[in-house]
Amino acid sequence: xxxxxxxxxxxxxxxxxxxxxxxxxxxxxxxxxxxxxxxxxxxxxxxxxxxxxxxxxxxxxxxxxxxxxxxxxxxxxxxxxxxxxxxxxxxxxxxxxxxxxxxxxxxxxxxxxxxxxxxxxxxxxxxxxxxxxxxxxxxxxxxxxxxxxxxxxxxxxxxxxxxxxxxxxxxxxxxxxxxxxxxxxxxxxxxxxxxxxxxxxxxxxxxxxxxxxxxxxxxxxxxxxxxxxxxxxxxxxxxxxxx
Length: 243
Known about the structure:
Helix content: 40-55%
Strand content: 15-25%
Number of strands: 7
Distance between the termini: 34 Å
Strand order of the largest sheet: 3-2-1-4-5-6-7
Number of helices: 6
Order of helices and strands: EHEHEHEHEHEHE
Shape: globular
Oligomer: single chain
């Protein structure tokens, strides 16, 4: 599949997204690394991929903007010379508060970024994938979509919605050679979890945070030819937290 198309990773300038871009490139995918603000970091990821013998390009754009999916896909196709046959929806934000005091702005930005934008990216990706009768979509959800985490009602709703969307869309296109799966990371050592209290790690059976590379390895498998019969699945990468 790599020779026929390219991969696009949203939020690919750091953390799980950057690790995923590197992992897909190591597997032979030309990779478009999307970023919203981290242009220098995204270019550093691209430089690392190129130095290792791969092909990559950095593409700026805020996925919340409904016009951006078309721009990103056009840019990836023009720069990397093929349709996007692997999409990783990784871009995400948090705006934590307890439900009684959660305001509309915090609700909307999380739902818009973590769910609605992922939906629009999936919708745009599926057109060329259906024509090619091949494709891989991997949505980066969260353990919070599987179990409660007080203070993250908006994030939980977005990620649980993303899991439901993953399963539903997977069934719709399964006969076209397209798989749609999700990974659900737990506490992963990234900028987003830098403020997480260490005592919360005591809830994790593995008693440690995961690494971005451990999540990326799971994405890499789901994007591979070996995972052709895996679709509509949710792969927890959480040290046993959701068990």
